Amino acid sequence: MTKCTDRVVLDLWHPLQAIAEMPAGRVHETVLLEERLGFARDEAGNAAVWRARPDLRADDAVDIAAVNDRLPAKVAYGYVWSSLGNPPADIFPIPEFAEPDRRRLNAATMGVNVSAPRAIENFLDMGHFPYVHTDILGAEPHTEVKEYDVEVSADRDEILATRCRFFQPMASTVSTGGADVEYVYRVPHPFCSVLYKSSPADEKRMDVIAIFIQPVDQEHIRAHMMLCVLDFDNEDKIIKRFQQTIFGQDKPILENQFPKRLPLDPRAETPIRADKSAIAYRRWLSQKGLTYGVIPAAA
Amino acid sequence: MITLYDYELSGNCYKLRLLMSMLGVKYKAVPVDFYPGREHKSEWFLAINPLGQLPVIEDDGLILRDAQAILVYLAARYDPSKKWYPVDDPKMLGEIGQWLAFADGITSTSSAARLHDGLFYDFDVDAARAGAHRLFRILDEHLWFGEQEGREWICSAPHPTVADIACFPYIMLSEEGGIPRQDYSAIRRWCDRVKRIDGFVVMSGVFPASPARAA
Fold first, then answer.
1. Most buried residue, A34, A53, B4, B142, by most Cβ within 10 Å?
2. What pLDDT digit, counting tens, does each position of A117-144 carry?
3. In whole angstroms, what is the distance from residue B160 CA to residue B164 CA?
4. Above 0.90 for ipTM, yes or no?
5. Whole domain around residue A133: which residue ranges?
6. Looking at the predicted structure, is the pLDDT value of residue B159 above 70?
7. B70-123, pLDDT tens digit by residue?
């Protein structure tokens, strides 16, 4: 496979690793857009990222201040981010992340044999809840995806799906029974999505669950699952387990998608009404001229 | 009550949840943050299992590790029908022992490939996949010839045994390690039979069988 030449994707910030899972002062390695990268953080929480080089191997001790020829690096939402191009000054905002009473965790980073846009599209889909996440995020006969709204916010350049409602038997670790749950989806980045859902712990606020996709190549990803939730009782590992159980159910569905890249031609796959957000997402990617991990529409 | 030290995405933990569900045995699960927390290498867990591996059970003062060993224990102790582990049938115990060892081979190949792809373990994934295909071919032939003789399960009993439960999870999860099963039709039919055993439960990545067709 050729390395990425997609300007849109090269200029994005991409997540690499959860800070909490990186011992300070040690070299870590990963692959982003088919390029092997080295990265590290210091005790103060600053990060450095560079193209992998033989003098800095995984697990080597490193003083990041002494590393030259670096790539852009940022720490946001508990992860190290980098870019192979010229990224914008800021990563999209998630204001809730700053609220002090929230639990902020990386539920897991998992490798999935699928393209980044397919993973985002699955994250936006409510129709599969009763069949794939049976008795957790959905249950028969409550299979209807009720009418919801989708808009592309021009000033923020992001997709927003609102008024999404779904009956969920066990919406979170705090749930005590089934409830109609309200969802808001944001897609503020081609390969990242942020979900807000009613919190069983506080009816005035919403849990935030984000999926940050690191494209390893066009058909392989690392999915980073960020949780920023209201849960005053459960241990971290219980909260992580809940999300991993759900993601583990999605995994075989994602890996059996064919073709693995997301077709952007509106005639390539037949959508139904419930796919409104997916249609907006595909159109948005098309309008950006994004080509990596997709099958572009014929000109 | 039995305590199971458990990780949801572990096929070896799943095989114990599966057998206990089929036997109707109640248990308490203690979640272990295997990934990303590596809690199975923590001090408190190493005190329970110095090998630092899941699963482990505690029952009535007994601490037992190793999925296959635990299957043997659970069936011998909690299955009054003595079908899952026929303690009075030496030939059957020999067969079961043979296939429990085979299940360990499935773990070290198919499960290793899945850990490589999904959780970034530094394994030789090509060797793991090749090893899994070799074992799947052997099991597929064994099951295919069994079907010709009217045998539906791995061992030569007219009912499933712990050998079926031991082999099932990492076969079902093989695609997560890049090991497709389309060439193994007898394995696929056997998987559907396992899914139709009373008390069958799923785990993340394993879906239930479609409703059985009328015969």
1. B4
2. 999 999 999 999 999 999 999 999 999 9
3. 6
4. yes
5. 95-295
6. yes
7. 999 999 999 999 999 999 999 999 999 999 999 999 999 999 999 999 999 999
Candidates B4, B9, B42, partner chain A, best to mutate (most A CBs within 10 A): B9
Q: In sequence order, which residues have a C-beta less than 8 Å from that of residue A202 and are 6 or more positions away? A: A230
Chain A residues close to B32, C-beta within 8 Å: 237
Residue contact A255–B176, C-beta within 8 A: yes
* B145 reaches A (C-beta below 8 A): no
Q: Enter the pTM of the model.
A: 0.95
Same domain, A130 and A263: yes
Tell whether A57 lies on the interface with B, counting CB pairs under 8 A. no
Can you list the domains of chain B with their CATH numbers? 2-78 (3.40.30.10), 90-195 (1.20.1050.10)
Segment A201-248, tens digit of pLDDT? 898 999 999 999 999 999 999 999 999 999 999 999 999 999 999 999
Q: Last residue of some domain: A55, A82, A109?
A: A82
CA–CA dist A5, A8 (Å, integer): 9
Cross-chain residue pair B36–A248, CB shorter than 8 Å:
no
Which of A82, A111, A135 terminates a domain? The answer is: A82
Q: Establish if A214 touches chain B: CB-CB under 8 angstroms.
A: no
Using CB atoms, which residue from B39, B178, B205 is nearest to A252? B205
Terminus-to-terminus CA distance in chain B, angstroms?
Answer: 40
Q: Is A110 on the interface with B (CB under 8 A)?
A: yes
How far, in Å, CA of A257 to CA of A255, rounded? 6
152-181 in chain B: CB under 8 A from chain A: 175-176, 178
Contact status, residue B35 vs residue B12, Cβ threshold 8 Å: no
Q: Where are the beta strands (DSSP E) in chain B?
A: 2-6, 27-31, 56-59, 62-65
Summarize the confidence of residues A242-266 as an average pLDDT: 96
Of A109, A246, A248, the CB nearest to B36: A109
Quote the number of domains for chain A: 2
Residue with tokens 């029952």: B59
In a domain, A2, yes or no: no
Considering the domain architecture, whether residues A99 and A193 belong to the same structural domain is answered as yes
